[in-house]
Amino acid sequence: MDEKKEAFLAKLRAIFRVEASEHLEAIAAGLVALERASADERGAIVERIFREAHSLKGAARSVSLVEAEALCQELESLFAALKRDEVQLSAERLDAIHLALGVLSTLCATPGASLSADGKKDEQRAVAALRGIVGELADTAPGPPASARSHPQEGTEPATPAPTSQPAEVPLPLPVAAVAAPVSQATPAQSPPPVSETVRISSQKLSAILLDAEQLVGAKIAAGLRAAELRGLVADLGTWNQGRVHQGARLRLGQSNAAAAADLLESELLYTRALESSLRKLAAFAHQDALTLAVINDRLLEDTRKVLLLPCSYLLGALPTVLRDMARQQGKGADLTVHGEDIEIDRRVLDELKDPLIHLLRNCVDHGIEPPEQRRDKGKPERATVVITVNPVEGNRIELSIADDGAGIDSGKVTAVAIRLGMLTAEEAARLSETERINLVFHSGLSTSPIITDLSGRGLGLAIVREKVEKLGGTLALTSSPGLGSTFRLIVPLSLTTFRGVIVEAAGQRFVFPTASVQRILRIKPDDIGTVANRPTIVNGEQPVSLVRLRDVLELTGPDGHAQGESRPVVVVRSVDRQVAFLVDEVQGEQEVMVKGLGPQLLRVRNIAGACISGNGTVIPILHAADLLESASAAGTPGLLATGAAGQPERRGHLLIAEDSITARTLVKSILEGAGYEVVATVDGLDAFTRLKTEAFDLVVSDVDMPRMNGFELTAKIRADKGLRELPVILVTALGTQSDREYGIEVGANAYIVKSEFDQSNLLEIIRRLL
């Protein structure tokens, strides 16, 4: 094949990949609907599925995908039998069809690529299972079997021998377990094809963009005319200035000709009036042009955004199959109902929501939905119902709710697991509200599943959901009623391009809080600050809220423009069940901001979600609300609302460093002093222990491998000394084996940091926790 034909085929296959995914999604959705349909509805659904399979077969033939075409032929034979009511769909037969769809998904996702060894095995299983079903019909019906009723090309042998002949060469129908087992790996819902780089756009959306572009032509012509007029004025002004110079020279030669001087003054007045009139007209035209361009620009931007909008069915269409397969693996039954699938959302938001929704469905199946026998005992239908509802909400956002009618969440069980894992104490748990107890399920590592399976048990699913939703600038809430079910509510923006933000200033720098994360903005005085659990707090409504300075959380050391005792603005930020008040220097207002990524060099920056460009070209960081709340829990708050000299960090503690490497010693010392600590550096463990006996310190940071006395020995001596045994010790070392870590803990170290994993923010956070 020559290069042109290869290039054309590659282009054709790229188009086919998009078309095939639509056909496969329609077939999978039809099968799920078929399981729940009444007898009167089944005929229309089967007809629709049959047509989709036929269209997919033709598309596969057009791009020379022989394996996909052959598999579609087998599906067609089965669907044709369904149309004739010659076969009934049992659970085992549905599993066989879904297995075939999974293989087709793999074949169509990478057209032209060869299947892996496992993929070929799946293909063989799928073909054998489908032929087995049709073969059963052939044994009970007269005439040739359905799989032999295809039309081979003239002069060739049939590609597929009848299943009833040559039994040794034809794969027999697989047992149910063999057919059902690979479903989770092969179904298109569980292993979706990669997202296409092309999109289908309605002609109406393209027409709107074209109309906006055509209107820009008029604005371009007007801008050209204004520029020509300005150039003409500049030329006239130059000519007039030149003439004025000549007239002034003649006046000087004529020794003060009064009449000529008066004429010159009058001509100047006339010219300046004409110039003023022309400039006024130009200014008015320029103002009108700016308004026109602003309207066209806004409309063009909005129409271009709409191009990226897709109906929610793009994401939700495959989820009924996902839920069915998950429930089948657990021996349960569940149906998915979707409301609001026609609402359009930014495609990038939909792509980001795919994993969270699958995690939530997995959680419903594994933790919420009861086995059929338990549901019968409770008077519930054997098949559970999961409902996904999409609704627009104010502020250019949407709400997705995922509700099930399962067992709900046992808050007592969740709390007990959290206590057992050391996430909180029994006393702390007793102070939690019911909502706070339920929301413990979002903590990473917490799972109430008694065993780890391929579906759940690791305690990561809901933590990932919260992280993904908050990354989008959204919020996640959970409500649950024991015995009645649970509802997850996700509120996310319709588009990732722009959003409303509150611009604040801290330590001489500007930042943006996403408005969706801001609960309230208020001003406080020093008398408004109280203390709860040794942390500064303010009262927001009737609820106490922790108070931290934004400059402390972001580790900024810039100037503080407020005098001690002066009232200050506070931004209360919320996320799920947590809220924290951030003290800032100034709130500059709320406005629409356009999000810009940080680039590939900064894929993930703690506390920062992105950046925006201000009107004067300044880059303003956008704050990550979830990160800030995590950082705020560890941020120190000494001397709140009190500062020393401008630009000088407050002194937070007296630390001792033991490190024999001058480079490492200098690095750690500079990090700690930059964070506001008083630091004394020593060259080894013996030198450090000598200083400890003569001077008071709040904490020790020590290397391990040092001459005279290493870090393990230093830690052991500190723990053996009555006056020093309560002194916190952090070991920072290159020794990273498990045995070294265990020995460090054994001798009494409070923390053990490996230098290969060294992160200065991690060190500072540990120090804050220990002091």
Strand content: 15-25%
Instruction: Output the number of helix runs.
Output: 24
The amount of helix comes to: 40-55%
Q: How far is it from the N-terminal to the C-terminal residue, by CA? A: 73 Å
Biggest beta sheet attributes: 6 strands, mixed
Total DSSP E strands:
23
User: In which order are the strands of the major sheet placed?
Assistant: 10-14-15-13-12-11
Unreliable residue stretches: 138-196, 450-458, 641-651
Mean pLDDT reading: 75
What radius of gyration results from the CA coordinates? Answer: 36 Å
Shape: flat
Q: Which structural class do the helices and strands define? A: alpha/beta
What does this 3D model show about the protein?
- It is built from 24 helices and 23 strands.
- The chain has 771 residues and is of the alpha/beta class.
- Helix 1 runs antiparallel to helix 2, helix 1 runs antiparallel to helix 4 and helix 3 runs parallel beside helix 5.
- The radius of gyration is 36 Å and the shape is flat.
- A 6-stranded mixed β-sheet has the order 10-14-15-13-12-11. Strands 2-4-5-7-6 form a 5-stranded mixed β-sheet, with helices on one face.
